[in-house]
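Trying the structure run again after the queue cleared.
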Amino acid sequence: MPGASVISIVEMFVFAPIRRNTLRYCALRSLNATTEEIKTFEAGFESMQKGWTGILDQLTEYLAKV
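Done. Tokens:
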């Protein structure tokens, strides 16, 4: 992914029980980023979403077994 890399990122994960399921929520934000860094960060959203979805799906499978 070309462009300037964002140095500071805040990640928030929320797991909330809802009936017999668990809501999984992940939010990412860049901090003190330049316009170019924000564009690079936003261009990577699809890739980040796929990565975090895969990790959270693996966690869900693991927790169902324990």
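The two ends are 38 Å apart (CA to CA). Worth checking whether this holds up in the mutant runs.
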